[in-house]
Amino acid sequence: MAPKTPSPSKPVGFTTRELSVRTLADFERFFSQVHGCACVVYYFGRHLPPVANTAGERAEILGAPDRARRHFPHRELMRTREQSAVSDLVRRGRADGILVYAAGDPVGWCQFARVEGPPTNTGDLAPLWRINCFTTRMDYRRQGVATTALKSAVAAIRKRGGGWVEARPMAFPHYDPTLPKLRRTYGWRSPEAADYIRDNWPSKEIPGIGRVNACQVTNKTMGHMGTMSMFEKLGFAVVGLDEERSSNDPRYPWHFVLMRLKV
């Protein structure tokens, strides 16, 4: 059954639940409806290895995709493997996350985790927690699902003892339908696309940080790491640029920021 699109005339009331053995079926159902990796990249630090390295090898093992019916055996197998890997972590109590519900139906997700490995900073500001990922079902986007998930994630971290929480959202999003058309016409690395970005891409000043550029989104997608303004509403403060994700390449000069909150 296809998911129902909420009526724009009626406000949607969202509820949240933490990821656990009790909500595992909802987690699996949610990620069967969205394009995503079930957050394996954050739980394991990498994507799961593919079954085969080339399209020909995949077709030989799994069968060729039926594009007319949008049936892609390798994609379906990877989805099953990803959900199975995370499900195993949940049963062992090693996976944290927030599910957002509308009328009992899971429509959103936020993944958070304890920081492992070398901290970003040393001393009292060393983050103990990191909020990594947001995913919202397409028919519920731009209705506050991610913000609802973020509030519950912060509350869950506080319940676990709190500490410094870190996030690395985009500075701010920007959708420009002209850019994809230029790239389709001239190519992703074309000077025409780079010139258009140089002359038209929005930026703004962040006190103490400097001028930052918007991150590209489409009319159907939003960056999975969230936006700076979303975190600011909950009291997160910008402490610097996220040097790992930010780029000054003229073909994609997108900027991400490093934000922290003590809970």
UniProtKB/TrEMBL annotation:
Domain of life (superkingdom): Bacteria
Magnesium among keywords: no
CDD domains from the UniProt entry: NAT_SF (cd04301)
Pfam families: Acetyltransf_1
Keywords linked to the UniProt accession: Transferase
Domain N-acetyltransferase residues, every copy: 57-263
Entry-linked PROSITE patterns: GNAT
GO terms, molecular function: acyltransferase activity, transferring groups other than amino-acyl groups
Residues making up the signal peptide according to the UniProt record: none
Gene3D superfamilies: 3.40.630.30
Protein name: Acetyltransferase (GNAT) family protein
